């Protein structure tokens, strides 16, 4: 029996994936995808982004929060996103949906395909058994808005489910005036999106968000090319360059909120670089 075009593509990709996993590394990037104005991510692009679900027994509720895979047992999101979960261990009711490209897809979906008939498997669900909120999370200012979620079982790596790198080998001293990549899900389209944002100074951030909005010391502002509002938890990423070539993405910050002021939409991010020691201490 002849395979359909979509199934043939998927089988071919699965075969290539089996070959490539021996060369697996975090923060995988495809250089040609960096130089496009496409606001939709390819199905296998940025494979570290997932969505936080809440288990209601007979259904899963999409919390409209993204998460980032940081190793085979842990994902990172905002502390604000996990406020709804009363249990911090055991039956938390929190579920990580990973390998997702279209947030309307369910794990029962055999394939998820874009308009070019490029297909990936349906998403996979992992129960969250422990939630750790940053001990210095400030309810008044919103600072240190970070939470680590431990999964019930190790993630099985594929071309569509992989972690991001937590740091680069050579990073700039400042995050001001950096043109950085972000990705995740948004309110305008169910498919994984992406974009670019220029990080701005604290003074410019205050002007963009209006003086009435406080931006905490460990947070920073990004001025995106497009005003599309992405879900909290979306990663802001820089690129490691080796031998004058883009090598991998690494995590800089995660989105905590969008602020509309006048004709501008500003993204406020939690600086992950300043929280790395806490993250690393809690990955054991």
TrEMBL record:
<dbReference type="InterPro" id="IPR043504">
    <property type="entry name" value="Peptidase_S1_PA_chymotrypsin"/>
</dbReference>
<keyword id="KW-0378">Hydrolase</keyword>
<dbReference type="InterPro" id="IPR001254">
    <property type="entry name" value="Trypsin_dom"/>
</dbReference>
<dbReference type="InterPro" id="IPR009003">
    <property type="entry name" value="Peptidase_S1_PA"/>
</dbReference>
<protein>
    <recommendedName>
        <fullName>Peptidase S1 domain-containing protein</fullName>
    </recommendedName>
</protein>
<feature type="signal peptide">
    <location>
        <begin position="1"/>
        <end position="22"/>
    </location>
</feature>
<dbReference type="InterPro" id="IPR051487">
    <property type="entry name" value="Ser/Thr_Proteases_Immune/Dev"/>
</dbReference>
<keyword id="KW-1015">Disulfide bond</keyword>
<feature type="domain" description="Peptidase S1">
    <location>
        <begin position="19"/>
        <end position="284"/>
    </location>
</feature>
<comment type="similarity">
    <text>Belongs to the peptidase S1 family. CLIP subfamily.</text>
</comment>
<dbReference type="Pfam" id="PF00089">
    <property type="entry name" value="Trypsin"/>
</dbReference>
<keyword id="KW-0732">Signal</keyword>
<dbReference type="GO" id="GO:0004252">
    <property type="term" value="F:serine-type endopeptidase activity"/>
</dbReference>
<dbReference type="GO" id="GO:0006508">
    <property type="term" value="P:proteolysis"/>
</dbReference>
């Amino acid at each position: 029996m002849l395979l359909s075009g979509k199934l043939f593509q998927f089988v071919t990709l699965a075969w290539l994936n089996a070959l490539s996993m021996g060369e697996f590394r975090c923060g995988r990037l495809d250089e040609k995808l960096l130089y496009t104005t496409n606001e939709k991510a390819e199905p296998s692009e940025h494979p570290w982004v997932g969505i936080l679900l809440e288990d209601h027994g007979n259904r899963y509720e999409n919390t409209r929060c993204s998460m980032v895979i940081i190793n085979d047992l842990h994902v990172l999101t905002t502390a604000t996103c996990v406020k709804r979960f009363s249990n911090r261990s055991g039956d938390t009711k929190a579920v990580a949906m990973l390998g997702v490209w279209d947030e309307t897809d369910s794990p029962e979906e055999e394939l998820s395909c874009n308009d070019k008939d490029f297909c990936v498997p349906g998403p996979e669900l992992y129960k969250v058994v422990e939630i750790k909120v940053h001990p210095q999370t400030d309810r008044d200012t919103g600072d240190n808005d970070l939470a680590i979620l431990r999964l019930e079982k190790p993630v099985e790596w594929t071309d569509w489910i992989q972690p991001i790198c937590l740091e680069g080998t050579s990073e700039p001293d400042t995050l001001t005036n950096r043109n950085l990549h972000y990705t995740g899900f948004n309110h305008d389209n169910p498919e994984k999106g992406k974009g670019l944002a220029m990080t701005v100074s604290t003074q410019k951030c205050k002007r963009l968000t209006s003086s009435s909005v406080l931006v905490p010391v460990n947070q920073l502002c990004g001025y995106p090319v497009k005003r599309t509002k992405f879900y909290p938890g979306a990663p802001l990423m820089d690129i490691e360059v080796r031998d004058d070539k883009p090598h991998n993405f690494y995590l800089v910050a995660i989105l905590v909120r969008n602020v509309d002021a006048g004709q501008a939409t500003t993204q406020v991010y939690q600086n992950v670089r300043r929280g790395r020691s806490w993250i690393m201490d809690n990955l054991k």
